[in-house]
Amino acid sequence: MKFGTVLRSPLVHFFLLGGAIFALYDGLNPADTSRNADTVLHLTPQQARGLAGQFSATWNRPPTATEMETVMQNWALEEAMVREARLLGLDQDDSVIRNRLRQKMLFLAEAPAATATPEDQVLLAFYEENAARFTRPARLSFQQVLLPPDAGKGDTQAMLAALEAGAPPSQIGQTSLLPQTIEALDVLGVDRVFGAGTGDAISRLPVGAWSGPVQSGYGYHLVRLAALTPPALPPLDDVRDRVLSEWRTVQMREVQERFSEAVLDRYTIELPQVQEVLGQ
Fold this sequence. Notes:
elongated, alpha+beta, PPIase_PpiC, four-stranded antiparallel β-sheet, 12 helices, isomerase, PPIase_dom_sf, Chitinase A, domain 3, 4 strands, rotamase, single chain
């Protein structure tokens, strides 16, 4: 193989680049006997059991002896890389690392609130103060007929009269893929099917009679509202898990706020003027 061909080989470029990186690394971090204490990668049995637990959680089985050896070797490589990266200052001014450290601090602060169990009186008070969150929305049951786009007032009245006289809805109006009968669907659910505002419009119709036309995202409909179940607050026991989850979320948010304030109180904050930053 010619020397020029060798120089053009991507593999040679890789080794040259790698050599340059290691040369830079050695220049920035010359051998220092004071670092000996930092060159021991010691994994405790407790830490190793934690790694085994992570493996089990991922693969739904414990690791084999060979797999565990690989897991521990990977830990050693990761630990070595992290230490050397810190020596090079690679953790400085890295927004991803900074955000992760901030998240871990907040996680440590909020962890007790995430699993706290309040007394029944506290949970009941939260449930009553936030009743709107847990109130089940009104539910609609109805039949609908989509009018042809060219239906005039006379046509609409004729179809309405036919429906009131007992004509099958499937034989009236325009054929479409829309469901002709809706059972116990809340207003937002109706809006998702027929378009924004349709559920509210149907909820205002008289129960038991054909009415309309009602406009939707697909055109105009004749509608028979069969039943309207009003909004209702379910008993606490029926939604206890949800109430507890939301109570914990509120507690975690409050803990985050108090913890953040306490951390900032340990520092003197010096910030430039906004006008100076924005050049105003």
